[in-house]
Design goal:
Length: 422
């Protein structure tokens, strides 16, 4: 990074030279704007006495990136080893590499430069962020998810978090190679998707829920019609008959908001074979459950939870958040009838992400939702290590499928003997 004072001076003079406020930079092609900015900055540098060790080319790149691009974040976004970028004010930037969060030497020249980058990000997708609306979700042109929190909510200055969009769509074999899931688990989940079981992927923040949902959604037969519903589009489905829907926040007048719940309701009128909701957070859980219970079998969604049992409790709370006055017994009946499989994922201290539980919801027992575990990850004494094992339980829906002529492999459920792995 060049000397901060020099970078700030060049940044200011470049903006004055370009008079960006009079240029429609949203409409101007970025390549043309960069070329113009580089030309203007070269002229500014020619009139300045630079330090002997200053790299003029690097100065031009840095200042142009910060003035019209994403500043010092450009290099981090181009780094394939970085999966997440966390900016805690202009002077502190952290990244996640290999599941571990590490500090970087990346800095913004000022809080104003950081705010300018944020403005460019959110304006591209028609969002706004200011002191009156200091929270916003957006995305970059490549699909990377962005969250912004401004002062006074953030006490360290503007907080910017970017969840990078994978350049290559991960497949089942990639997760197996990474040790995130075992082949018997994959075989079982593929049968669940093929035979239209309703699946919820649960886990904590950054545990890999959306990645697994992407992989499972890719197993849906290509002839089926899929409607995806998300707050900020992240799913990467390669289906021909796909309708991706994205929620919309209210405009500056407080109108025009379209919630996930409204989109779920509308999706029912779009003749979907499958509905995929990126994440259930509130009252939309009731609409999702009703969709699963009214002929839209094989739907998928994710939810935050610490365990499969905790997911069921959270679903109860989310349904109650819908504002519909339902007794708890009726809510549990809805959940037990709608959800077939829970896949729980977790991120370990070493940075690894793994499927830790695959659980079947078997119904209601004395008013309590009953489950049985099909697969689990058995941790070893060494932190982050362990093996995937089958519990020996066979899913209840396998027998009816076999009776109907399905050719299913029961050997994947064989309980592992001591020292064996699935």
């Amino acid at each position: 990074m060049p000397p901060p004072e020099l970078a700030r001076t060049l940044h200011r003079e470049l903006l004055e030279s370009l008079d960006l406020r009079r240029r429609d930079i949203v409409q101007m092609p970025e390549a043309d704007l960069r070329a113009l900015a580089s030309e203007q900055l070269a002229g500014i540098l020619a009139r300045m006495a630079l330090p002997q060790d200053a790299d003029a080319g690097a100065l031009v790149q840095f200042v142009v990136d910060e003035a019209i691009g994403l500043g010092p974040l450009e290099a981090l976004l181009a780094d394939d080893t970085v999966s997440e970028i966390m900016v805690n004010g202009a002077g502190r930037v952290f990244v996640e590499r290999g599941g571990r969060i590490v500090p970087t030497t990346t800095r913004f020249t000022s809080e104003q430069a950081l705010r300018a980058v944020i403005e460019r990000i959110v304006s591209r997708v028609g969002r706004r962020v200011d002191e009156s609306s200091p929270l916003v979700d957006a995305r970059l042109p490549d699909g990377s998810r962005v969250n912004v929190v401004l002062a006074p909510l953030s006490l360290c200055g503007a907080a910017l978090t970017i969840r990078k969009f994978a350049r290559r769509r991960l497949e089942v074999r990639d997760l197996v190679a990474l040790g995130a899931i075992s082949e018997p688990m994959v075989a079982f989940l593929a049968e669940c998707v093929r035979h239209r079981r309703n699946i919820v992927v649960s886990g904590g923040t950054g545990s890999g829920k959306t990645t697994l949902l992407n992989v499972l959604s890719a197993l849906i037969p290509p002839a089926e019609r899929i409607v995806t519903i998300e707050d900020a589009a992240e799913l990467q489905l390669a289906h021909e008959n796909l309708v991706p829907l994205e929620a919309r926040i209210a405009n500056i007048e407080g109108r025009g908001e379209i919630t996930i719940r409204a989109l779920v309701r509308n999706a029912l009128r779009m003749r979907p074979d499958r509905i995929v909701v990126g994440e259930c957070r509130g009252g939309e859980a009731l609409d999702m459950l009703q969709a699963m219970n009214t002929g839209h079998d094989g739907s998928l969604t994710t939810a935050h939870a610490n365990s499969p049992r905790d997911l069921l409790s959270r679903l109860e709370v989310m349904v109650l958040m819908s504002g519909v006055d339902l007794p708890l017994a009726a809510v549990r009946e809805q959940i037990a009838a709608a959800i077939d499989i829970i896949v729980h994922v977790a991120r370990f201290a070493c940075g690894a992400r793994r499927v830790t539980h695959v659980v079947e919801v078997t119904g209601l027992d004395a008013g309590v939702i009953s489950t049985q575990e099909i697969f689990r990850f058995a941790p070893a004494a060494r932190r982050g290590q362990g093996s995937f094992v089958a519990t020996g339980q066979v899913p209840g829906f396998y027998e009816p499928l076999c009776a109907a002529g399905a050719n299913l492999d029961y050997s994947i459920f064989r309980r592992a003997m001591p020292g064996e792995e699935t």
